[in-house]
């Protein structure tokens, strides 16, 4: 039975390969995609919060308490918890005009360098935001507004989002470094 070659990292084909793979890496990737879908639920919650707030403001000159603060926190959850899932599916934008014209080996090398650079950035951001989250927990940081909401859960979500993105980029770099593209 012939084995299809794995797509190059960053081509948007990673998820298609991940669904055919066996073992822990595809399970991790499925988990990252699922977390991204769960983060999409924040969109529904934002709609359920903002629409009544707008109607109440227009019709009764009142607002839903803490609607602005909650919708801001939901937006942060939506963005950062969806990062790794979007990377797994190949949904982040890429600039490929120059890379597409290169020979296959050069394309692969460029994509690997880009993946490793992104991994470095995501890992640094995970560390920095984890330290900020820890500080927010220790200080019991809250929002400033009519209703004070704790900030630490959202800061933890930001750090978690970057850490999971770093994990996915590490998996992609590992796959790109293997001659057969496998994860074993």
TrEMBL record:
It comes from the Bacteria. Its main location: membrane. Keywords: Cell inner membrane, Cell membrane, Membrane, Transmembrane, Transmembrane helix, Transport. The chain crosses the membrane at residues 31-50, 70-88, 109-130, 150-171. It is a multi-pass membrane protein. It holds the Pfam family DctQ. It is found in: Cell inner membrane. InterPro entries: DctQ, TRAP_DctQ. Residues 46-178 form the Tripartite ATP-independent periplasmic transporters DctQ component domain. Belongs to the TRAP transporter small permease family. The complex comprises the extracytoplasmic solute receptor protein and the two transmembrane proteins. Part of the tripartite ATP-independent periplasmic (TRAP) transport system. This is TRAP transporter small permease protein. It comes from Marinibaculum pumilum. The lineage of its organism: Bacteria, Pseudomonadati, Pseudomonadota, Alphaproteobacteria, Rhodospirillales.
């Amino acid at each position: 039975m012939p084995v299809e070659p794995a797509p190059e990292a960053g081509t948007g084909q990673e998820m298609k390969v991940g669904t055919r793979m066996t073992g822990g890496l595809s399970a991790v990737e499925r988990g990252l995609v699922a977390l991204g879908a769960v983060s999409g639920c924040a969109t529904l919650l934002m709609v359920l919060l903002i629409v009544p707030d707008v109607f109440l403001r227009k019709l009764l000159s009142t607002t839903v308490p803490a609607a602005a603060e909650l919708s801001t926190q939901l937006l942060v959850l939506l963005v950062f918890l969806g990062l790794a899932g979007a990377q797994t599916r190949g949904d982040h934008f890429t600039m490929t005009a120059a890379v597409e014209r290169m020979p296959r080996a050069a394309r692969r090398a460029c994509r690997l360098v880009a993946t490793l650079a992104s991994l470095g950035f995501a890992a640094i951001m995970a560390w920095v935001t984890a330290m900020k989250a820890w500080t927010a927990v220790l200080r019991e940081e809250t929002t400033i507004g009519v209703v004070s909401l704790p900030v630490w859960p959202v800061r933890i979500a930001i750090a978690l989002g970057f850490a999971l993105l770093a994990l996915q980029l590490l998996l992609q770099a590992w796959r790109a470094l293997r001659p057969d593209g496998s994860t074993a």
